Amino acid sequence: MVTGWDLKPQGIQGVLKTTGETASKIQTHATSYGDHLTSAASSAGTISADAGAGGGGGGKGEGEDAVGGLVALALSQFAEHTTGDLKFIAARAGKSLTGAVDATTAYLNGDLEMAAEAQRKALGAVDLDPKKPGVQTR
Question: For 21-51, how does the pLDDT look when each residue is reduced to its tens digit (9 = 90+)?
């Protein structure tokens, strides 16, 4: 159970701004990641038993219509597997930022509600019952 809060909204705002700017670059990095994997796959060449067809230098072997070879296939499968991870990271960052903003807003709203409640109590009638703890006297 939380016994007290000590949030500094200005500090939170600064952290959220910096984090948001960094998170917004995830899409750019993901695109670059995909471009680099595609480039690596297309530059990997193929393995061929026919030395006259390029013999590993990227040429097509007999009956081979697809560009790429085992390395290109492996990179393609790697990219397919990791794309979901990248999407998860972007979604998690977005949800985390949204949650932090929502939590801070609720805290600030709660702070205002507490202030209004304290003001209401302060304007209310004074209880002078001596049997109650913390009783005020005139």
Answer: 888 888 788 888 888 888 888 888 766 555 4
Q: How far apart are CA 87 and CA 99, in angstroms?
A: 18
- Burial code (b: 16+ CB inside 10 Å, e: under 16) for 72-87 equals beebeeebeeeeeebe
User: Which residues, including other chains, have CB under 8 Å from residue 13's CB and lie 6 or more apart?
Assistant: 104
CA 118 to chain centre: 38
H or E segment to which residue 91 belongs: helix 70-123
Residues listed for the chain: 138
Torsion sign across C-alpha atoms 99, 102, 105, 107: negative
SS (H, E, C) 15-66: HHHHHHHHHCCHHHHHHHHHHHHHHHHHHCCCCCCCHHHCCCCCCCCCCCCC
